[in-house]
Structure formats: structure tokens, C-alpha cells
């Protein structure tokens, strides 16, 4: 009994507690940028040239500058001093990669739906997906240079969101801004969790 | 990508096609490891490691402390699908053990609070 206690104390450190958040949204909305802004590791991703893969598939009407699309996933990691590790996974933007979503969503704390106010309908499918799965999510409208600034209430109305779903503005290029989005997402998940526990 | 652009070094991609290192296998033999499951070396490196390819050994070398397949793919610069096949091989030989990450961890208030605190003090 006593010796067992000491053996354990001298053993390897306990394995880290790992968890994940999903970053979803339409093609070209800034998921890769968002993950890259806060991750401590080189993002894991596979990019393919759009000229071969995306012809007739990707809607690039207002994203003329983007030539490649992420076909696998974005992956980022944040390690906290407590030993908890948070992984960020960007969901593949195009519908033909939806087979990957269920695995990504399994066990996720929650999700961020990144929206481009110039193309709001692009995030309808992500919102539908998380509503159906009952995954807590927030909507973050990514600001692009030259895009009009909308009122958050207008965005909420346009997306027909439940009143409890947080909506915020963000700049995916800025770490501080991304941090606020992640905090909002986890805080919302916690609120939902506590509400469910009281029921 | 313009036509006259030259691809050099990493830009040119791997010399060996990714699935050549799995001998064409795209799925692991056993249970597929999850993206954030924890893979750790079982500490046996002699007889069981015979006949392993360099990629197997490279992954095994990264499993000294628990590591996720997502991190392995990033560290070894291999596609996730390839990592899954190779980890499956290592697992089959008893060279690594895999601990499933808590599915439905969203149920755990302690984890949520800890992530929230962590983000706030970043």
C-alpha cells in the first residue's frame, strides 16, 4: 500500500487532458488564418491548387485573391500551464469533405462558426450541422478590409440564430481577437452545460 | 502557381509518395486511432522493432511521451492517414499503446473551466 504510493509518485507525469474546439465556416472565410493566429504549432494542412480541384465546385465570387483551398484540415494547439491541451480543428469548407465532420465533432467542447458578412449564406450549413448535433457554437463575423460593417443584431437576424447563441465580430489575423472568440465559445459551452445539468 | 515556377526542396513535395511508406495501405489493420487519442511508446525497442521502416521508427521516436496522431502528423510531416496506418502497425507489434481521449468530454465541467481559465490567462 505505502510502497505503491511512492512508486506512483516516482512514475511518469500523468498524461495530458486533451480536448478540442472546431472552427467552421464557408470556404475562404479565414479559418486557416484564425487557427494560425493562436496556435503554438505549425498548422497541419494540405492545400491543393484550386485550378485543378475547385473548378465549378468552389464559390469564389468574392474571394478572387485566394488561389488554393484547404482540402484536409487546419490544426492548431494551445497548451495551458494546468496541463490541459486544447486542439483547434478547422472543418473542411467544401461539402465534398463533410465525411470528416463527424469525427472532428465527436467529443468537441464546442465550435466557432466563422462568417464573412459579404457571403453570410456560406455559413448556413455549418450552423445547421451544429444545431442538429446540439454542439454549442458561437458565430464570429470575420472583418475583411473593404467589407461593410454590420450590426451584430442584423447578422443574428440574417442567420436566424437562437437568442442564446453569442454573435461577435473578430479579426482572424489578430491573436487577441481570436482569443476573445475562443473564450466566448468555451464560456457559452459552459453555460449550456450548466443549464443542462440543472434540468 | 505559374507555369514557369520552379519547385525546390520541400516545395517539390516528398521524394517518396506518402502512401508508398504504408505500402499502399490507406487504412490501419486494427481500430483506427482518433485524432486526439494519446499514443505512447511501450518502451520495447528491440526484437519487435525489426523490419520497421524509417517512418515507423521516426514515429516511434516521437512517442516517448504521450502524443496525439494530429501532432505526429504535424511533427513528422506525414499525412494523417499515413500516420494512422503506421501507428496501427506499431500498435499491432506492441510497440505503442493508445489511450482514447474522452469522447463527449463536453460533459466535463472541470475541463471546460480549466480551458476557460487557461484562455483568459494566455
Structure description:
The complex is a heterodimer of chains A (199) and B (122). Chain A has 199 residues and is of the alpha/beta class. Chain A has one domain: P-loop containing nucleotide triphosphate hydrolases (Rossmann fold, 3-Layer(aba) Sandwich), CATH 3.40.50. Chain A has seven helices and eight strands, in the order H-E-H-E-H-E-E-E-H-E-H-E-H-E-H. Chain A has helices spanning 2-10, 31-38, 50-53, 101-105, 124-133, 152-159, 175-198; strands spanning 17-25, 47-49, 68-70, 74-79, 84-90, 110-116, 137-142, 167-170. In chain A, the strands form two sheets. Chain A has a six-stranded mixed β-sheet, sandwiched between helices. A two-stranded antiparallel sheet of chain A has the order 2-3. Mean pLDDT of chain A is 81; it is low at 1-8 and 46-60. With 122 residues, chain B is mainly alpha-helical. Chain B has a single domain (12-102), classed as Arc Repressor Mutant, subunit A (Orthogonal Bundle). In chain B, 34% of the residues lie in helices and 7% in strands. Chain B contains four helices and two strands. A two-stranded antiparallel ribbon of chain B has the order 1-2. The relative contact order of chain B is 0.18. The chains are: A alpha/beta (199), B mainly alpha (122).
